[in-house]
UniProtKB/TrEMBL annotation:
Domain Response regulatory: 8-124
Domain HTH luxR-type: 149-214
Keyword terms of this UniProt record: DNA-binding, Phosphoprotein
4-aspartylphosphate PTM positions: D59
Any Pfam family hit: Response_reg
InterPro entries: CheY-like_superfamily, NreC/VraR/RcsB-like_REC, Sig_transdc_resp-reg_C-effctor, Sig_transdc_resp-reg_receiver, Tscrpt_reg_LuxR_C, WalR-like
Xref: PANTHER family: TWO-COMPONENT RESPONSE REGULATOR
Name under which the protein is recorded: DNA-binding NarL/FixJ family response regulator
GO molecular function annotations of the record: DNA binding
Length: 218
């Protein structure tokens, strides 16, 4: 009787301790083979093209290329590759952006080994899986929106929309921080989240898109 083929896995995470630790945890298991590790989104895309894995475990916040855009490119290159997003965050905008990019699963980094293995297997088999803490919230995100004013970018939080409005108006990060009584680091982090959720390459792109939606005119 022929033994089942192992699920070929690429792990992409910019934190070496987590990336290598997860690989060391999963690779010895029967039925799983870690074929490559990637330090950023660009390496993840390249590794997926080279190895044609069954599943890519993808972090969201990574240098060079964020995990949302990397997911979009991996799925575009090979729709048969399932992407399982594994990250610290679980805000609605990130979940929605991951889904739109083509991810089939979304788990928090605090998930247990058994839960991660089950998720890898489910994604490999063509299913969609989310951690228990996210399932209800994802249903809410995907539910029809109530009647009323439509937000220009529903995947963004209210704070991120507020910051994007000021970016579109030509404000710099220090100016935004002063106006909203935020720390410069908080503003930088929010700008990074905005770029990832909107799958934008740079600040100029989000300014154009925000102004097209009517932001920045206040």
């Amino acid at each position: 009787m022929t033994a089942p083929t192992a699920i070929r896995l690429v792990i992409a995470d910019d934190h070496p301790v987590f990336r290598d630790g997860l690989a060391s945890l999963l690779d010895p298991l029967d039925g799983i083979e870690v074929v490559a590790r990637a330090r950023d989104g660009a390496e993840a895309v390249a590794a997926a093209r080279e190895h044609r894995p069954d599943v890519v475990i993808m972090d969201v916040q990574m240098p060079e290329l964020n995990g949302i855009e990397a997911t979009r490119r991996v799925v575009a290159d090979n729709p048969a590759t399932g992407v399982l997003v594994l990250t610290m965050g679980e805000d609605d905008g990130t979940v929605l952006a991951a889904l739109r990019a083509g991810a089939r699963g979304y788990l928090r980094k605090g998930a247990e080994q058994d839960e991660i293995v089950r998720a890898i297997t489910t994604v490999h088999e063509g299913g969609v899986v989310f951690g228990a803490s996210l399932a209800a919230r994802i249903a809410e995100v995907l539910a029809p929106a109530p009647s009323g004013p439509v937000r220009p970018f529903p995947e963004l939080t209210e704070r991120e929309t507020e910051i994007l409005d000021r970016i579109a108006a030509g404000r710099s990060n220090p100016q935004i921080a002063a106006e909203l009584f935020l720390s410069p680091k908080t503003v930088r982090n929010n700008v990074t989240h905005i770029l990832a959720k909107l799958q934008a390459t740079d600040r100029a792109e989000i300014i154009i898109r925000a102004r097209d939606k009517g932001l920045g005119s206040g």
